[in-house]
Amino acid sequence: MTKSELIAQLAERFPQLVAKDADFAVKMILDAMSDALVRGDRIEIRGFGSFALNYRPPRTGRNPKSGEKVSVPAKWVPHFKAGKELRERVDQSI
Predict the structure, then answer these.
(1) Residues 22-34: b if buried by 16+ CB within 10 A, e if exposed
(2) Could you give the CA distance from residue 9 to residue 4 in angstroms, rounded to a whole number?
(3) CA dist 36 → 5, 13, 28, 90 (Å)
(4) Alpha-helix runs per DSSP H in the chain
(5) In this predicted model, what pLDDT tens digit does every residue of 37-85 receive, in sequence order?
(6) CA-CA distances (angstroms) from residue 92 to 1, 45, 53, 85, 86?
(7) I need a labelling partner for 36 at 20 to 30 A (CA). Which of 42, 58, 63, 94 fits?
(8) CB-CB contact of 62 with 75 (8 Å)
(9) Would you tell me the crossing angle of helices 19-38 and 3-13 to the nearest 10 degrees?
(10) Which residues pair with 62 in a beta bridge?
């Protein structure tokens, strides 16, 4: 599902909500989540999952094309862990 599909589905499900308002709401939620991760906070949505940051230390990698060694700097990457309810719903649907 894309962001535009989510907005369209929200507008369809709630007829009193104009598509422009649904777009604004989705944008605000995603911006708030991004800002929280930038601050280093953890985000938990009960029944859905949690978002956190994982630290990846610096390492030496290889360029797959030439095979030469490449220095990969340390970085923080977002990580999603599905909640129990989401895992169970997905497992039952397949």
Answers:
(1) bbeeeeeeeeeee
(2) 9
(3) 24, 28, 12, 27
(4) 3-13, 19-38, 84-93
(5) 999 999 999 999 999 999 999 999 999 999 999 999 999 999 999 999 9
(6) 20, 21, 29, 11, 10
(7) 58
(8) no
(9) 130
(10) 69
Section 2-29 average pLDDT: 92
Residues 85 and 93: their CA atoms lie apart, in Å, by: 12
Retrieve residue 78's tokens. 């977002």
pTM of the model: 0.80
Q: Tell me the C-alpha distance between 15 and 23, whole Å.
A: 14
Residue 17: Cβ within 10 Å count:
15
Question: Rounded to the nearest 10 degrees, how much is the dihedral formed by the CA atoms of 72, 74, 75, 79?
Answer: 90
* Alpha-carbon dihedral 10, 30, 75, 87, rounded to 10 degrees: -40
